Amino acid sequence: MPISSDTLVFSVALNHYDRIYDRNIASHRLYAARHGYDYVCVSRPAWTTVTEAVWLKIELLRSSLAKGYRWILFVDADCELRAAAPKVESVSKPDKAVYLAVGFSGNVNSGVIIARNDPAAVEFFDAVLEVSSRAVPEMDWGENGHVIHVARRSETVDHLDRRWNNNADPTLEDFVRHYSAGGPMRPLYCMGLTARAVQLAVRVRLKLLKVAGQHQVARVALPNRLSALGDRCRRLYPQL
Do the Cβ atoms of 32 and 39 come closer than 8 Å? Predict the structure, then answer.
């Protein structure tokens, strides 16, 4: 499928996160439509392991760059894109191709990633995937520690204004409000009754998988598993 814009906005909302965070997903669509961007919400396959779900963004960022988009904005499903959010390309700086904001932890947070199509961006995401199969000193939830690890050693990363990924300050006039797990913003997300019911069902299923030892992927197997899942997603979503 040929791309219809030079900018892509996408989110990964597997394990029914598209239904749990339906209000946020709607804000992504509105933002993309407002600026004439392509938008994809990756909600299929419906189920995968927690490890694959959080790492998939890196695999799809790589393939989206290869697709030819000039700019890519990735946002987690638990992020709300606010009406004040400017165009993606407004963050552009010379010699910088990957843009990340610092979160409440004091480290960069991979819930929002902006990438400009440049060999340096490709190298950055390649490097993150290269270290995915081993532990790094900055180990953190999901892939975030590996992103921190590579970002600290990369000259192509620029720190975004925190308004692009606000997971700490409810009073901030932000562009992206991130209701991230473990942070002060999560309790502020207003979830409808249907979304609450879906969330409960997902938690029960994931807990059962955890008991069965099937909720994660052995780190050594992660690159191959991500490649296979990425191929499946690209068949389902040709824009990626």
Answer: yes
